[in-house]
Design goal:
Blueprint (H helix, E strand, L loop, with lengths): L2 E4 L9 H7 L1 E4 L12 H34 L5 E4 L8 E7 L4 E2 L18 E13 L5 H7 L9 E3 L2 H13 L11 H21 L1 H20 L5 H15 L1 E4 L10 E6 L9 H14 L6 E6 L4 H7 L1 H8 L3 E8 L2 E6 L1
Parallel strand pairs: 1-3, 8-9, 9-10, 10-11
Antiparallel strand pairs: 1-7, 2-6, 3-4, 4-6, 5-6, 11-12
Length: 342
């Protein structure tokens, strides 16, 4: 098992509280966009475009190395040790990386003053084992690494193997079982079967939209294999990435942008929440009116479903639009997918 040491200061702002409360870690460098499927060369070019004028090439090269470690080198199931500066806390947090990289556009503001939304959009989910572990109790091999001058201000670096082994020993002596979770064969079959069913159903009624779902089917399955519960942030990240390459609009992200042939509506929060089905459906119906001639098909991915409320408030508008356009609503659950409207 590998281990990583992370400083909780993306964009120079202490985010330790958010990390612990919301079960994620992040690095800074806002303004460079989504780094999904981005290798080191790609990351470097994005950093250069945004930062070289103010910070120079050396900063851009060092930054691209750190970002690449975060978005590409870390692996699910590896340890991460989050260590604040001693003036901020004498306690550290220890967790297991629980997801691949994802980008949360909402937290990509670039201002230096803390608005609560700036500078920590590049993220990974974490399962915390210890949230307030005394730094003095860390293995000596780890503490020696922390005082190296070359690493004192490094945002993210890999723990040496000896230090990682000693940390694992310490955690296991405290009762933690660090074996990685694996999806059961039963759940794996449920998810595979649900994907097959929705593709077959869509192919009969909405063949154009089927091609979009086919492109991401394997990636979606991989996301579900990562943890026991689906990570909707990762699913959203994948769908936004797909839309960028497929010239499709994404709602709620692309409101007020040019009309596209296809639309992905992502309602991956509670039914009545800000980015839940009700709000996203209203935005999508406005988009339909504005893009009546350009748009030919819309796929909703929703994590919540209320059949009674849908029939009472949305079905008639959906039916009217679906007379000349393709519309599919797919419910995302921990055990796969279900078409709730087509």
């Amino acid at each position: 098992m590998n281990g990583w040491i992370l400083r909780p200061y993306p964009h120079g702002i202490n985010r330790m509280t958010q990390f612990l409360e919301e079960n994620f870690i992040a690095v800074g460098w806002p303004g460079i966009g989504n780094l999904y499927s981005c290798n080191r060369s790609c990351v470097y070019q994005k950093v250069v475009e945004f930062y070289i004028e103010d910070y120079g090439d050396e900063f851009c090269r060092e930054s691209s190395n750190i970002i690449t470690r975060f978005n590409d080198k870390m692996r699910i199931g590896e340890l991460v040790l989050v260590i604040p500066r001693k003036e901020d806390s004498l306690e550290v947090a220890v967790g297991l990386i629980d997801s691949s990289y994802f980008f949360d556009r909402k937290y990509d503001e670039t201002g230096s003053l803390d608005t609560g939304y700036n500078g920590f959009s590049h993220r990974r989910k974490v399962i915390w084992l210890e949230k307030k572990f005394p730094k003095r109790l860390l293995p000596d091999t780890v503490k020696k690494t922390l005082i190296k001058p070359s690493l004192e201000n490094e945002a993210l670096f890999q723990m040496d193997l000896e230090g990682c082994h000693r940390l694992v020993d310490l955690l296991e002596s405290n009762g933690y079982n660090l074996q990685r979770w694996e999806m059961s064969q039963h759940r794996k079959q449920l998810i595979k079967s649900s994907i097959k069913v929705i593709l077959e159903t869509m192919n009969q009624k909405t063949p154009e939209l089927t091609k979009i779902v086919e492109k991401i089917a394997l990636d979606i399955f991989q996301i579900f294999q990562e943890t026991e519960s689906p990570h909707f942030d990762l699913l959203r990240n994948k769908l936004v990435h797909l839309a960028t390459g497929a010239a499709a609009s994404v709602i709620p992200i692309d409101v007020n942008l040019p009309c596209q042939k296809h639309c992905l509506s992502l309602a991956l929060h509670g039914w009545h929440e800000k980015e839940g089905f009700c709000e996203v459906a209203k935005q999508t119906m406005t988009y339909w009116l504005e893009c009546l001639n350009e748009n030919t098909g819309t796929i909703f991915f929703t994590s919540a479903w209320d059949e009674v409320d849908f029939i009472a408030h949305y079905k008639s508008q959906f039916d009217a639009y679906a007379k000349k356009h393709d519309v599919v609503v797919i419910l995302v659950t921990a055990n796969g997918f279900l078409i709730t409207y087509i």
